[in-house]
Amino acid sequence: MPLDAAVKVVGGSASLPLARALARELGVGAVDVSFERHPGGFPDGERYVRLLGPVAGEHVVLVQSTHPDPAIVEFLLLADAVRDLGARRITAVIPYFGYGRQDKRFLDGEAVSARTLAKHIALNADEILTMAVHNPDLLGTFPVPAREVSGMPALARYIQGADVDLVLAPDANAVRHAKEVAGIAGKPYDHLDKERLDSYTVRVKPKALDVRGRSVAIVDDVISTGGTIATAAKELRAQGARRVVALCVHGLFVGNAEEKLRACNEVVATDTVPSAHTKVSVAPEFAAAIRALA
Length: 294
Description:
Elements: E1 7-11, H1 16-26, E2 29-31, E3 33-34, E4 50-51, E5 59-63, H2 69-84, E6 89-94, H3 113-121, E7 127-131, E8 146-149, H4 152-160, E9 166-169, H5 175-185, E10 189-191, E11 193-196, E12 202-205, E13 215-223, H6 227-238, E14 243-251, H7 257-260, E15 266-270, E16 278-280, H8 283-291
Parallel strand pairs: 1-2, 1-5, 5-6, 6-7, 7-8, 9-10, 9-13, 13-14, 14-15, 15-16
Antiparallel strand pairs: 3-4, 11-12
Helix pairs in contact: 1-8, 4-5
């Protein structure tokens, strides 16, 4: 799909840096949004949004992660406003899809929150682009076309210019990510074997790796509590690694994650969730996906 002046980017407050980077990458304009206190002076913390530019007749790329929770309400308000103000097409870019991990009913009576959120996001979207979802099968629950965009090329770009000898997946589930990053960066890769004991505790099973004296990059899709990465880093140190770098697409860093991650020499995350560790942008990846839309 060739882009023209009728494409505009609108960014929610959870994803403003990425939205601006995406507009620059696409070479299109961005519509500013006011997120200030409601002019009615409501004191109860309700979200307030106001588009500060026209969108009538335009293809709007709406960029907003659904994390933390208020960002969900903000996305729904923005999407409805953009549609109501006459946009001809809305592409929802959800950099980080919050609530994506509850993708099935584990216990009787549970809400399948990933499916619930997917339905509501799609109400005012013609298509959806997201990144590093917990389970790619989730894309099939959206009632509009949905595609996962890989964030691994962004991490590979960082590795190419860094002191890294080996790319490592912290467990078997992340091997596909390490393989993709290593392939792009031209580095070898391997993986550790992990056993999860509970939601906060993991144990790395003994596995001999050729890491003595080497710089190792641990690659995963998301760092939440930091337990998996910290455990992997300690194992690598025990086996003689001279440097350990942790890289992820989504850096949530909840609880005492920062303390745990001191086991690493460096932590790198993308701008899907802005943080102090955001050192690379996935705007080029989303821009390529938008240009490829039919």
